[in-house]
Write a structure and sequence with these properties.
The complex is a heterodimer of chains A (about 290) and B (about 300). Chain A is α/β, with parallel strands linked by helices and about 290 residues long. Chain A has helices spanning about 35-40, 85-90, 130-140, 160-165, 185-195, 205-220; strands spanning about 10-20, 25-30, 45, 60, 65, 75-80, 100-105, 115-125, 145-150, 170-175, 180, 200-205, 225, 240-245, 255-260, 270. In chain A, the strands form 3 sheets. A 7-stranded antiparallel sheet of chain A has the order 4-3-7-1-2-6-5. In chain A, strands 11-10-9-8-12-13-16 form a 7-stranded mixed sheet. In chain A, strands 14-15 form a two-stranded antiparallel sheet. In chain A, strand 12, helix 6 and strand 13 (about 225) form a beta-alpha-beta unit. The longest helix of chain A has 13 residues, at about 205-220. The radius of gyration of chain A is 18 Å and the shape is globular. Chain B has a single domain, classed as Alpha-Beta Barrel (TIM Barrel). Chain B is about 30% helix and about 20% strand. In chain B, the strands form 4 sheets. Chain B has an 8-stranded parallel barrel with strand order 3-4-7-8-9-10-15-16, surrounded by 7 helices. Chain B has a 4-stranded antiparallel sheet with strand order 5-6-14-11, with no helix packed on it. In chain B, helix 2 (about 105-115) packs parallel to helix 3 (about 145-160), helix 3 packs parallel to helix 4 (about 175-185) and helix 6 packs across helix 8. In chain B, about 55% of the residues are buried. The chains are: A alpha/beta (about 290), B alpha/beta (about 300). Chains A and B meet through strand 14 of A and strand 5, strand 6, strand 12, strand 13 and helix 7 of B. Bound molecules: flavin mononucleotide (FMN). Flavin mononucleotide binds next to strand 14 of chain B.
Chain lengths: ~290, ~300
């Protein structure tokens, strides 16, 4: 039996380009026409580590960008920083390296139905899916503005591309080396007013997501978050990537919350669906 | 040569082939249906079921380790009734033989789950997951105590209509002693083995990698332990069918478990790498049998050269 239409594409792909971005970040462009054709912003691909067969599991990476230029095979970009053995090996991949990938996986960001001003808020490497999102939102006629945050100017993910993909970009850094010194939520309200944003899309570290969600709730703005959690399978079978979400009481649920699978029910969630009281700001070590 | 005979008989239940999928590693089957024909499997051992829904542990619930992974899912499941109403009919409709894995915090809870599954259509056997804290007895694992093991199995046997398999844990001093308690309690067969308790620490953050600190180690890292456990148990109880599990990721691994004394196997963690893993393992195993000119899969059990 060949895979059905619900199946993600799975197979070997070739690396087209490796690039070192700013100091902490790496990027890989892979030739994957089938994934490219079906991918939507917010989805991810699951990549096996080449060479080291003692690493069994795939690693999830947000789709950072796709290139569907006519006459081009169709490429997908991922970006990452080194967090452990797997990403260390992956950062050694070069042109023609063969990678085993599965994707696209997960639920994408939802787009506004009518022309809407959208504010994208990203922190660190977590901002990865926003570039793809910005390009697609613009393609659908929406206005896109950006806030990018990071520890230092080096940690701002692809600021030049962010500028190209949006009308305005504002930066915040913890040390003030670029843009406003502080965190993204220090300027969120001001940027919302200036850009007349009606919806916020965000991804990055959990404390940032929590702060952005709180700020959006206060400003009564719908907010979608792209969640990151340790995964084993990426397609809903293992229950490793648990995200606490609010649920209707009743139907066997007296608590009003439960665990959702980040990989299949997410990674994009409405911020109001996350049960923030159950979210840990500093979870145990995450090594990918 | 004609195709090798793959059908196996486990405690009176016939399976079209000996390759099953392990509990908690195939959920209730649906996630794999887009990728493979589930009828290729001998059967599916579903995620462990409790009387009421269990929420499971907070994240992080998983950590990769060399040739394996640690998990701390905490037996999250929607409860046996939700399974019967929602997931079982789906599996039955697809003609997938179902082995229901059951779990509880007390003998009473195990009995109640088994009772709900009594005569459930499509459920061909029960696997009793005894790797669970016994809240009636200072939270020791049922699996580490012969008396607790015997009590659970006797209770489950009283109510269940299907053959019962007891799933043993390797975290015991003498696995044969626990196997004996299960068999004396009336267990028709044994599943060998569950995950081994492990732990990993992130040296940068200096934190344990799992929210629960310790968790179950699975994958090829534990295979030699599982082979040893199957070997010891099968030598002690040659008439009792064993479902071997622990680190299976190839057709040769299946053969190795059978040579050690297993009648069937269950594929666990390897399903996570590739949703079509079980099908690949099946194909590799058939190729192995053909190459070795083994006409009937049940012969393998008797082929280990110990002389
Ligand atoms: C994520 C995960 C969840 C599991 N959940 C269960 C479970 O609910 N019940 C159970 O009896 N075993 C459970 N197991 C254990 C497996 O069924 C299997 O016995 C064990 O992982 C060894 O096989 P493997 O190395 O092929 O994975 C789980 C294992 C993993 C990795």
């Amino acid at each position: 039996m060949s895979p059905t239409k619900d199946a993600a594409w799975s197979g070997q792909v070739e690396v087209f380009a490796y690039r070192r971005l700013a100091e902490p970040y790496h990027s890989l462009t892979i030739v994957a026409p089938d994934i490219c054709a079906r991918a939507a912003p917010g989805q991810f691909i699951a990549v096996r580590t080449p060479d080291d067969r003692s690493l069994l599991l795939r690693r999830p990476f947000s789709i950072h960008r796709v290139d569907r230029r006519p006459g081009w095979a169709g490429t997908v970009d991922i970006v990452f920083d080194i967090r452990g053995r797997g990403t260390e090996v992956l950062a050694r991949a070069r042109q023609h390296t063969s990678l085993d990938v599965l994707g696209p996986l997960g639920r994408p960001f939802r787009f506004p139905k009518e022309q809407t001003n959208c504010l994208l808020v990203g922190g660190g490497i977590g901002a990865a899916p926003l570039l793809f999102l910005a390009e697609e939102l613009r393609g659908h006629g929406h206005r896109v503005d950006y806030i990018l945050g990071g520890r230092t100017s080096e940690h701002l993910l692809r600021p030049i591309e962010a500028k190209r993909a949006s009308l305005t970009v504002s930066f915040t850094t913890d040390d003030g080396s670029s843009g406003t010194q502080g965190v993204v939520t220090d300027i969120l309200e001001e940027r919302v007013r200036a850009t007349k944003a009606r919806v916020v899309y965000t991804c990055g570290p959990v404390p940032m997501l929590r702060a952005v969600a709180r700020e959006c709730a206060r400003l009564k703005l719908p907010c979608q978050v792209a969640w990151e959690e340790v995964m084993a399978c990426g397609f809903g079978a293992c229950l490793v990537c648990a995200v606490p979400v609010r649920l209707e009481r009743g139907a066997g649920n007296d608590e009003g919350w439960g665990w959702a699978r980040c990989c299949t029910e997410g990674p994009v969630f409405s911020a109001s669906r996350i049960h923030w009281e159950r979210v840990e700001d500093a979870p145990a070590g995450v090594t990918t | 040569m004609s195709d090798p005979r793959l059908e196996v008989d486990l405690a009176g239940v016939k399976f079209r082939n000996p390759i099953l999928t392990a509990s908690g590693c195939f959920h209730y089957g649906k996630e794999f249906a887009p990728y493979m024909d589930l009828r290729r499997l001998g059967g599916v051992i579903v995620k462990s079921l409790s009387v009421k829904p269990w929420p499971g542990h907070p994240p992080p619930r998983g950590a990769e380790t060399p040739s394996g992974m640690l998990n701390a899912i905490g037996l999250q499941n929607p409860g046996v009734q939700a399974f019967i109403d929602r997931d079982l009919p789906w599996l039955v409709q697809r003609k997938v033989p179902v082995i229901a894995s059951i779990v509880g915090h007390s003998v009473e809870e195990y009995i109640r789950v088994a009772d709900r599954l009594r005569n459930a259509p499509g459920v061909v056997a029960i696997e009793v997951n005894i790797s669970c804290p016994n809240l009636d007895d200072r939270s020791l694992m049922f699996s580490s105590n012969p008396d607790a093991t015997g009590a659970v199995i006797r209770g489950v046997r009283r109510v269940s209509s299907q053959p019962v398999f007891t799933k043993l844990s390797p975290d015991v001093t003498d696995i044969v002693e626990i196997a004996r308690a299960a068999v004396r309690g009336g267990s028709h067969g044994l599943s060998v083995m569950n995950t081994a308790l492990g732990m990993a620490i992130d040296t940068e953050s200096m934190r344990p990698k799992l929210s629960t600190f310790t968790g179950g180690l699975s994958g090829p890292a534990i295979k030699p332990i599982a082979i040893r456990c199957v070997y010891q148990v099968s030598r002690a109880f040659p008439e009792i069918p064993i479902i071997g599990q622990g680190g299976i990721n190839s057709g040769a691994d299946v053969a190795e478990f059978m040579l050690a004394g297993a009648s069937a196997v269950a594929v666990g963690t390897a399903n996570f790498t590739e949703p079509t893993t079980a099908k690949r393992i099946y194909d590799e195993f058939v190729e192995y049998l053909t190459r070795k000119r083994i006409k009937d899969v049940s012969q393998l059990k008797k082929m280990l050269k110990e002389g």
